[in-house]
Amino acid sequence: MRWPGILEYFADYLPLTKKTPLITLHEGNTPLIPSSRLRQKVGVKGLFFKFEGMNPTGSFKDRGMVVAIAKAKEDGKEIVMCASTGNTSASAAAYARKAGLNCVVLIPQGKIALGKLSQALMHGAQVLAVQGNFDQALEVVRFITSHYPVALVNSLNPYRLEGQKTASFEVVEWLGGVPDFLALPVGNAGNITAYWKGFKELYTRKKITSLPKMLGFQAAGACPLVLGKPVANPQTVATAIRIGNPASWQGAIAAKEESQGLIEAVTDEEILQAQKILAEEEGIFVEPASAASVAGVLKKAREAFFRGMETVVCVLTGHGLKDPDIAMKQCEGSIEEVAPSVEEVVKILGL
Ligand code: F0G
């Protein structure tokens, strides 16, 4: 089957009108990859990875962005704007170009991964590096988009969450049922809000008869939802989730409480370890923030949280190529130099 993209495939679940332009880069339909080795380590019946890094711009943001941009186009907007730790800006820039709109992105200076920055620039977005953090950039964007004819495409825009909720539909479709747990990284908290909305919609429409427990994981240096108060100066190696005052705070807490799930913190060390384990044991390369879901599940396994018969889905939100610098740092010293000679290579390999 030709995959038509989010707007067409999930039209019945999206706020589209006859006038909505059905733009697409064929986002969505990302694989749900069964674990090969980590499943035993976690000690559950099923462990799956929803690899959102397979979206056109390499992150889950494309699902919501295609809806937000299509609606901005429908409304006659010419400029879209967002604050971003990187992935939202890459996605906004790409979809804006697809729809023929201009895009402005505000990013925290020096704190966004190289791959993401190169995407926004290549797609011709106007990139402004804010001398501050994401939360401060978002405040500026909120003001400008509510006082000038510029469309907001951060996840405060409800169309973003409408699109993002489709990932939960795919999890159910690919799995042929509802997982017991859905684990994901939490930054601005739009995604956990969107997944929960999606599952609840399926439940209301009687497509499913149970709901998963939501397991949200924040970085220890940027975990306002765990602390119960905003963090003024968030710090983490996982720059995508370096956020101190999430816009969808209430949505995240509701997802946690209604699903009887949890939102906890994982350290940078645990995040980087999980990133390496995923790459080495499962063949899946994700960016650090995405590994937070796996770091969290591994932590809960160490705490004997799982009973053994459960099915767990870890959402892997972004591709590893987004952040080559961190990846290279993780692998420092692993390249050996050698002369262009068979004997030398054979000697090193011990063959
Ligand atoms: N994982 C990745 C790779 C992200 O880029 C983000 C958020 C998250 C997880 C967290 O999702 O914000 O919905 O809780 N990135 C945003 C951005 C903030 O600007 O790209 P969330």
Describe the structure.
The chain is of the alpha/beta class. 43% of the residues lie in helices and 15% in strands. It has 15 helices and 10 strands. Helix 4 (87-99) links the parallel strand 3 and strand 4. 53% of the residues are buried. The model has no long low-confidence stretch (mean pLDDT 98). Bound molecules: ligand F0G. Ligand F0G binds at residues 59, 61, 84-88, 155, 185-191, 240-241, 287, 289-290, 317-318.
Task: Supply Rg.
Answer: 20 Å
Low-confidence stretches: none
* SSE arrangement, N to C: HEHEHEHEHEHEHHEHEHHEHHEHH
Query: Strands across the major sheet, in which order?
Result: 1-2-10-7-8-9
- The structural class is alpha/beta
Sheet with the most strands?
Answer: 6 strands, mixed
Question: In whole angstroms, how far apart are the ends?
Answer: 47 Å
Which ligands are bound?
A: ligand F0G
Averaging pLDDT over every residue, what do you get?
98
